[in-house]
Structures are given as structure tokens and as C-alpha cells.
Amino acid sequence: MSKIALYFALIFFSYIFNVCSGAEDIFSANQPIKNGESIVSANGVYELGFFSLESSTNQYLSIRYKKADGVIAWIANRDAPLTNASGALTLSSEGTLKLFNGSNTIIWSSNSTRSLKNPVAQLLDTGNLVIRTENDPDQGDFLWQSFDFPDNTLLPGMKIGSKIGKNSATGLFWSFNSWKSNDDPSPGTFHVKLDITGYPQLFIYNTSARYIRAGPWNGVTWSGIPIAGLNNIFVDEFHFKEEEEVYYKYELFSNSVLIRLVIEPDGRLIRYAWTNQSNKWEPATLIQADYCDDYARCGAYGSCNGNNLCSCLNGFTPQNLEAWGGLNFSEGCVRATEYICSDRDDFVPHSNKKLPDTQRSLYNLSMNLEDCKKKCLENCSCTAYANTNITGKGSGCLLWFGGLIDIRDQEQSGQVLYVRVAASGSGSGSGSGSSSLASSSSGARRIILIVVLPIISILTVVLGIYLWHFCKYRKNNGEGGELIEGEIDNDGKDLPLFDFRTIANATNNFSNNNKLGEGGFGPVYKGILEDGKEIAVKRRSTRSTQGVEEFKNEVSCIAKLQHRNLVRLLGWSTTEEGERMLVYEYMPNKSLNFFIFGDKKERASLDWAKRYNIINGIAKGLLYLHEDSRLRVIHRDLKASNILLDYSMNPKISDFGMARSFGDTETEANTARVVGTYGYMSPEYAIEGAFSVKSDVYSFGVLMIEIVSGKKSRFFNHPDHNLNLMGHAWMSYKEDRLVELIDESILESIDQYQAYRVILIGLLCVQQYPEDRPNMSSVLMMLTSNNSLPHPKQPGFFTERKLDEEYNLSGNEADALYNLLDSSSSTQTVTAVEPR
């Protein structure tokens, strides 16, 4: 009996000890974790708590290895460290984790988009922090999990890829990125991402530039990573279901082994394994073994060898021999002989190669290699083919289109790449014909040389002179396509001029699959140049009302504007046939309106911290245009669709076709041609044609309120009144009901004081009279300080409703617009209005 009592006593005291020492792996809504406390996974490997990094005194809510040097595996508040010992993690009754600082302000949240009854948070044995239902411990579909938001470390079971797949515009994307330094876990410049533009492949990016390409999956590993051979420690897994999910992960054979994959601050991707013999983490570099791993080191059709030198593929020669001799291989190689497409073309096999960049590729996972070759021959743009899977005898078909980029020798895991070359000439065949036939043939050649060739030469000269005069006439009289010569100023001429063929090749001949969207100027396409650089091409539509003036304005206005919050114009193109195209840096995350006006899931993905960062970024870009650039630039068409987002969701102002530039002493102007977008136009511009920096400030104010509310300024409606969004914001402010204006999808992540302040600044920007509005330097100061703000006056244009539904406006229907805009301006007229 005494032994049984002793046994239960030991169990009880063990339980008490575990609770007090933080050994429980679960906590609930009524059990917050405070600074100095922690919970430990059931297997004792991982620990969740508040920890510091090396010499830093900042503290972070982290998951770390409880032993194994206490290495950090995941951090929640990377951008918002705790600067003192006060901090607490709570779980709301709906199932949202919230991290509070010493001022009781939320600095991080799990942003769960749905809720649970009786939620609990648990640190699993895998190091995954999950939120689940208390009564369902085995639930696999967690409400939220830290594995969906990797830090700089990929743990076993974490994924890189996309939850929904390549054909979906929405979904959960998994990637992980470096720290700035070992003491600063805020996002660094390097990140690891699965690119699913063509056949899926793994990339390391440096900011938005491709840095290292691990290559496509070949059935065993990534094509650019040497095969290390079978092991009994872990297994790589690649899951590819196009309509559902595409991702990579690795799993351990035994939980007794500790492995982590880390992207270091300097961009090295390293797999670390904990060894009990040495009691330390042993590194094994996966890629970046040499300079050959630098992306596109040898340019198009070039291959890098083990000596870090480049050579052209068979049938190709260096494009720039002088640069090649100086060990500058970036210009790559070109075909040694002129290429004429034929179904008799040859394919030269290149063994043991890391396969080229697959962004411009097509694939069929079930096709055999012979059918793959036939498929390539059917398309003149197809330049190479290979198997997608190297296991067994090989299977699957992978086709490349355009230049072959980023190839290297890969002895261990390389594949056979079949590169297309022109059909080899078979010669004329020598027969045993009679001497008379030979003589006859010789005589015929002499007749051709003496009579026919001079006639052809004369006709060629006459035709050339005619065409020269005809083209000159068309240019001078403005017929047909207009040439760019003289259309742009010297600033625009500093930009690269792209030829039409280069852009057509980059966009797969302007394929609908490459189309990103369409605006007032025309459609926009994604393209990839032969050096692998991603671009966005805006092509003027034949139906566009915009033409030479807008094109000239876009090129000339922003040619030398350089700011991190302005989209960068890379070059332009024009042809005599009237083609006009603008080439920009590619923005992968589309435009702002895709997120703030999307469905609830899309809006929730843009939490308050991201929205506030976007607002500040736009403000900095506008301040540069208004005050810090070489010329004062007024955008005139600032709206959500003209704010593009880069890889890190940083905003970039785009579309300068309507912009106007001024000298240092000029601040405003008038126009008889009012252009822009209803809902964003200031009263003085829409009615009188008067525009200034303050009309841009008005547009920015509208945009700020749209970002906070998730509602469009145009077509806004409310069941209780007939006010538009500006009027609704004004009434919400006057009646102290600003919380009703905030997008419900971000209420959990909102900094309420900050959001109210942004709304108030937005109302100051949309005041009716321009002299009442602040300039952008004042706006930015208001956004970045806690100084008291003045009370706004009534906004302009706060009563119109469903404008485009009631009137089909055109340039000749200004009276209809005028009647709706503002009854206090009854003496004003609008000369022309061009909605977009």
C-alpha cells in the first residue's frame, strides 16, 4: 500500500514540477505566457518563450531548441522586439494569439481568419506551434500554425511552395528568408522561394533579383544540388498537384536526429545537423559551392564548368569575344550559324548538366522522351527538351522556349539536355552526269551572271530609293505609325531602346498566359529576357484613347526618377507600324487594389502592419515627386491600381502617363483636358482643371481611407445614408464611430490608435479647399510622429453616389458630371473629362 501511495506522490510532484518549470506543451485562453515563462514540447526538444539573441538585449517570442545550444528555430515578432522584460502572449477566446508589450499594445498577432470554440495553443514535438480545438487533439486542419510562416529556418515538415497551385491567383505561399544579422532577426535581403511560373524550381533571391537557382525537381533532388546518395536520416519530398498544391519539404526517419535548413544573412543555404559526439551543429553547404552557382553566370547558351569558367554549348559561339576573353561571360552565346526552323532540326545531347531556368517552359509529366522531341519540333520557339524525372529510365517531358539560361556541369545529379540546332546540310550529291549536261549547266550559269543579275541589281536600287522616299513622306506627314524620333526629350533617350523581337520573345509573343492585366494605355504582360531578368511590358492598345502624348510623358517624366517607392522604367520600344511599349521592373504581388478590395481572405493577408508600411511608402514616394526629385512632378492619377507591390509587399507608385512636371518655382497649373479617375479627383481639378501638389494630396487622402476601410471610394453605399466613402468617413469622425470604418478583416491585427490617426490624416488630405490640405512633408511627419493633429474641415465631393451607374460619361458629357459634383460651384464648367 505504501508503495502505491509513494508512486502516486511521485507522479503528483512530477506534474507540479513540470507545470512550474514550463514543461506543459499546451496553454488555453485563460492561461497567458508572460516574460520569463515558457512551454516545452512533449518530447522536450523545443521550447516556446521570450528569448534574446547573442549580444542583443532585445527579446523575441521564439521557438528554440531547449538543448542543442538553444538555437532559435522560429520568431514571431521579428520586426517588433520587446525592449524590456515586460511582455505577454495570450490566446483569445476565438483562437487568436496576441503578443503584448509593456504598454499593453499588440505588437504581433496570429491573424486567424476564422474562430474556434474552446481553442488551445500547443507546441508540437515537431516544433510547430498550433491553435486547435481543445477536444480534438489529433485535428490536422489547425486554425493556425507557425509552420505556415517560416522564419530563417526550414524545420522537418515545413513546406516551401504554394497551397493552391500555379493556376490560382490566391492561396497560401510558403517561403523563408534570412535575418539581417545574427543579432537582428528582422527580414534580410535573401529569401528562398519555389517559383512556379513554368516547371517548378527552387530559387534564392537577393531582394527581388535571382541570386542562386537550385533548379527544377528531377525526381530525386533539385537539379542544381549534387546528389549526396541515400541516407538513413532524412528524405526529400516534392508534391506536385497543379490545381491543389505544389511544395517541397523534408522529413526525418528518426526523431532522435536534429536537422535544420537555414538561409544565412550572407545568402548561404546550409543544412545543419546536431552531433552528440562533438556536441555542436555541423554544417553542410547545399549550394554556392563555387562561382558557377551564381545565377546566369555564363549568359544564354553558356555552361559553367568546375573551374568556374564558361563555354558555349555545341553549335554556339560567344556573343562578345573580347568580353569573353576578359572572363566576362554575362553576354552569353549565340548560334554559330543562322538558324532556320525546320522539322528536320537536330538535337545535340549535353550530358551531366544542371537544367536551364524553366520559367519559360512547358511540361507533360507522362510523355516519353521521343514524343517530347516531336513536340519540340512542332514549335519553332522550342529550343531544348529533357526528362522531368531521372529515376529508372527517365520519364516526363520538359520543353524550353527562348534562350537557355543558368546551365552548369553537374557530374553527380546532372541530366541530359537536348539542345536544338539547325539541320545539318546534306550537300548537293555528286552524280556521274555527262559532260554535255555539265557544259549546259555551266552555260546557264554564265547567262544568269551576264543578263539576269544586272537586271535584279537595278530593280533593287530603284525599289530601295522608292521605299526611302515613301517612308520619309509618311514620317513628315504623320501617316501610319509614328516614329519615336523627336517624341521624347533627352532624359528618355538615356533609357535602353528594346527592339520589338526581343520583347515579343520575352512575352512568348504576347501570350494571354503572360497577361497581367489591362489599363487605359493597354494590356500589361509579364516577360523574361534572355538573361533571365523579369520585366513587365505595357503595350499600347489600338483601342486606347491614350497615344503619343502619354507615351512621351511616361518615358520623359520618370526616366531619371530613382526612388525605392517608384516603379522603375527599364526602357521603351516603338516601331513604324505604331507599336509603343514601355518596359518596367516586374512587380510579383500585383497592385494594391487586388488585396484591399479582394475577398476576406485576400484582405486579411494584408494585415495592419503591412497596410501601414504601404501607406508610409506611398507617402515617401509622393514626397520625392513633389519636393525631392529633379523636377516637381504631379502624378494626377494616384489610385490603388497604380500602386504596385514588390516581393516584400513594399509599395511602388506606377503609371506616369498623366503626370506633369514643373520647375522649382512652379506649383500649379490649369488644363482644359481633365484626366484621371473619378473618386480620386480633387474638386478644383475635376471642376476647374486646376491641379497642383495639393490635388495629389487629395488623391492620397482617398487612398489612405480606402486602405484602412477596405472599401472603394467609387460605388460605396451604406444602408443608412447616401454619402460616398469620404462622406461616410467624415460622419464616422464627427460621431466618434471610427471603428465602424475599419476593415473587419484586420480588426484583430489593428493598432487602433494608429488606425484612427491615419483616418484623421486622410480627412485632412481630402478637405474641400487645397489651401487647407497639408503638403506631403507635413503628411509624412504626421504619419511618423505622435504630435497632436488639427481637426479636419468638411471634405470635397462627399455626397455623390454611384456616379458611373447614373451617367455614362464621356468627354462631351461634362454637364452631367458638373451637376453631380458640387452645387456650390454652379458657375464653373468642365471642358473635357476623360475617365479611366
Model description:
The protein has four domains: 133 residues, Agglutinin, subunit A, CATH 2.90.10; 131 residues, no CATH class; 96 residues, Phosphorylase Kinase, domain 1, CATH 3.30.200; 244 residues, Orthogonal Bundle (Transferase(Phosphotransferase), domain 1). The chain is flat. It has 836 residues and is an alpha+beta fold.
Characteristic key phrases:
disordered N terminus; Phosphorylase Kinase, domain 1; flat; Agglutinin, subunit A; five-stranded antiparallel sheet; disordered C terminus; alpha+beta; eight-stranded mixed sheet; 47 strands; 836 residues; 4 domains
Full CATH superfamily name of the largest domain: Transferase(Phosphotransferase) domain 1
How would the global form be characterised? Answer: flat
- Could you tell me how far the N terminus lies from the C terminus, measured between alpha carbons in angstroms? 88 Å
Helix/strand-derived category reads alpha+beta
Share of helical residues: 10-25%
**Major sheet: size, sense and barrel closure?**
8 strands, mixed
Helical stretch count? 17
By CATH, the topology of the largest domain is: Transferase(Phosphotransferase), domain 1
Ranges where pLDDT stays below 50 over 5 or more residues in a row are 1-23, 165-170, 425-445, 470-492, 800-836
How many domains? The number is 4
Count of extended strands: 47
Q: Biggest sheet: strands side by side, in what order? A: 26-25-33-29-34-31-32-30
If you average the pLDDT, what whole number results? 79
* Assembly form of the protein: single chain
Radius of gyration: 32 Å
Strand content: 25-35%
Tell me what the CATH architecture of the largest domain is: Orthogonal Bundle
The CATH class assignment of the largest domain is Mainly Alpha
